[in-house]
Design brief:
The protein is of the alpha+beta class and 312 residues long. The chain has three domains: 120 residues, no CATH class; 47 residues; 78 residues, Nucleotidyltransferase, domain 5. Helices cover 28% and strands 32% of the residues. It is built from eight helices and 15 strands. The strands form four sheets. Strands 3, 4, 5, 8, 9 and 10 form a six-stranded mixed beta sheet that branches. Strand 11 and strand 12 form a beta hairpin. Helix 1 packs across helix 2, helix 2 packs across helix 3 and helix 4 packs parallel to helix 5. The longest helix has 19 residues. The structure holds zinc ion (ZN).
Length: 312
């Protein structure tokens, strides 16, 4: 049996698609707690194994992307279709009826703008922000192709190229700014051949710069452009100390805990090595004294011997 079901196309246009009735089920579950308060879930179905939700925006204002001023003037509604986090391995798509607003700032060139649902589904995005967060997190902990394969198992169909483009979009805004406390250390690109220097923000614990080499030259240049730095934690190698002293003589240099422990353990090992001889003789036990049988197992002491020992 066939019926016409209203489905919103990816381009936001309203269209009709002929769908087999047996492939549509009503999803009887309260999904409201999993969605923002300003989204009212009006319908939830499982269509061809995928979860299709319809929702309506309940916002009363939105921020203009051009001038950043909030506006409350409704202009019209429009439909958006975005993919959300999967549910029990099923792909989830939401068709949202959202608002367009007038920009109430007379000086702004943007007269009308579409709302971004408070970041839930950003402008020109086909996926919700939280779905992009999940994909980014998997990609950063694996690799782009691996991420795409894991996502497919979870019900998110993406390619490795999509993951690369997403990462580029997210991290192309230049290096994040850092505060007054940083930590620096070296890392091996190819052990014994090429090394780099990573700089992390002391407050967020996130990397803010990755520099070539570990001789201090690139670090000195970076520090000269980041004079807000007041405290630097580092290892005990001389190259970084020299670069910091030259670029920021006022900055406090702190030996970091990891390297202090490492140095302490090296000193303890060296002391033990000096105190304990390299060879320690262990006296060998004569097998005849413990009575070894031919098969190699020790013979248990006889009752006679036990009695003799008890008499003693
Ligand atoms: Zn504006």
């Amino acid at each position: 049996m066939l019926q016409y079901t209203h489905i919103i196309g990816c381009n936001g246009q309203y269209a009709k698609r002929r769908t087999s009735m047996k492939n549509i089920e009503v999803l009887n579950a309260d999904l409201t707690p999993f969605y923002p308060e300003y989204l009212r879930i009006d319908g939830q179905h499982i269509v061809d194994g995928k979860i299709e939700l319809t929702a309506k925006s309940m916002t009363h204002q939105s921020v203009c992307p051009a001038c950043g001023k909030p506006s409350q003037g409704y202009h019209s509604t429009y439909r958006r279709r975005v993919e959300d986090l999967p549910l029990l391995g099923k792909n989830v798509r939401i068709t949202v009826t959202a608002y367009r607003y007038y920009c109430e700032n007379a000086d702004c060139d943007q007269k009308v703008f579409a709302e971004d649902l408070e970041g839930f589904a950003g402008w020109f995005r086909r996926k919700t922000g939280r779905l992009e967060d999940l994909i980014t997190s998997i990609a950063l902990n694996t690799n782009c192709e691996g991420c795409a394969r894991i996502c497919e198992e979870m019900g998110i169909r993406i390619s490795g190229d999509y993951v690369i483009n997403l990462l580029k979009k997210r991290f192309s805004g230049g290096a994040p700014e850092c505060g007054g406390i940083i930590g620096i250390d070296d890392f091996a690109c190819k052990k014994g051949h090429t090394y780099g220097t990573v700089i992390c923000d002391g407050d967020t614990h996130r990397p803010v710069a990755v520099l070539d080499g570990r001789d201090g030259g690139s670090l000195k240049e970076w520090l000269l452009n980041n004079k807000q730095v007041k405290i630097v934690t580092r290892d005990r190698a001389g190259a970084y100390a020299k670069a910091i002293s030259e670029a920021l003589p006022e900055a406090i240099q702190v030996a970091d805990r990891f390297h202090l422990f490492q140095n302490m353990m090296d000193a303890v090992k060296e002391t033990l090595r000096a105190q304990i001889p390299g060879k320690i003789e262990i006296s060998r036990v004569d097998p005849k004294e413990v009575g070894v049988k031919r098969d190699g197992n020790a013979e248990p002491p006889s009752k006679k011997n036990n009695r003799a020992k008890a008499g003693n």
